[in-house]
Amino acid sequence: MALLAKKRIRKNRRRGAFSSRTKLHQERSPRGMARKIIYLMIFSGALFSAFSLINQKITEVQYVTEINRVSLDDLEAVSSRIYNQGFLQINLSHAKQEIEAINWVKSASIERRWPDRVNIFIEEENIIGRWNNQSIINSKGNLFNLNQQTLPSGLIEFYGPNGQQDIVFKKYLVFSQELAARGILIERMTLDFKGSWSITIRPGISIRFGKDNVSERFERFLMIWDESLLDNLAVIEYIDLRYTEGFSIKKRK
């Protein structure tokens, strides 16, 4: 009986092996391959139809925020490259870089709105002040010519040799950060032709640093401001820090 059972097991194993080989042969048959190709074609067609439905051509580019200083012609040039692109194929990162390279654009963000619209949000640079009473300087330190009638009030006055606006503006950024923390506002920033620095703060107090060790003298000003100047603003005309040590104050008459 044991011998007979072993033979039956071996026979069953042979039948299983034969059955597996038969299924594998069927899967490799031309009919099985054709069925797979048909399924693949159906799936590809459905995928293409869905992509075509979503990927509509862009027919509208809308600037959502109000534009005051950015050139509309420059924006239109960017818009023209977006029109008729597919909804899914627009390179938003590239379009954002193009817009942010335009004068007076501080930052930009772009969003798709299906089926065929793109919304663009722009934050414009601010006008910081006047440069030599001839040009406008923005919050990037760039110079522009604008209609004087459109300028806001309270602009900072920057003065310096022609071509030195970058140096003056960078110094302004350093000074204004420290001064703003103390509630001090700069009215005027000056670099004269001899290389001497001075600022005017509200209410009309002139601070003279000279041309040497300007950073050290500026720190000295902050120290004396914190210690004794705040309570005497109304009587001060100017503060002179052009000394190796110490300072002098002239009172108003």
How would you summarize the topology of this molecule?
Blueprint: H1 2-27, H2 30-54, E1 60-63, H3 72-82, H4 92-100, E2 105-113, E3 117-124, E4 127-131, E5 135-138, E6 143-144, E7 156-159, H5 165-180, E8 186-191, E9 197-201, E10 205-210, H6 214-229, E11 236-240, E12 248-251
Parallel strand pairs: 1-3, 4-7, 7-8, 10-11
Antiparallel strand pairs: 2-3, 4-5, 5-6, 8-9, 9-10, 11-12
Description:
- The protein is α/β, with parallel strands linked by helices and 253 residues long.
- It folds into three domains: 2-43; 60-124, Ubiquitin-like (UB roll) (Roll), CATH 3.10.20; 127-251, Rossmann fold (3-Layer(aba) Sandwich).
- Helices cover 41% and strands 25% of the residues.
- It contains six helices and twelve strands.
- The chain has a nine-stranded mixed β-sheet with strand order 6-5-4-7-8-9-10-11-12, covered by helices on one side.
- The termini are far apart.
Short synopsis of the structure:
The protein has 253 residues and is α/β, with parallel strands linked by helices. The chain has helices spanning 2-27, 30-54, 72-82, 92-100, 165-180, 214-229, and strands at residues 60-63, 105-113, 117-124, 127-131, 135-138, 143-144, 156-159, 186-191, 197-201, 205-210, 236-240, 248-251.
For the record, the CATH architecture of the largest domain stands as 3-Layer(aba) Sandwich
Sheet/helix structural class:
alpha/beta
Largest sheet, spatial ordering of strands? 6-5-4-7-8-9-10-11-12
Q: Tell me which oligomeric state these chains represent.
A: single chain
CATH evolutionary superfamily of the largest domain = Cell division protein FtsQ/DivIB
Number of helices: 6
CATH C-level of the largest domain: Alpha Beta
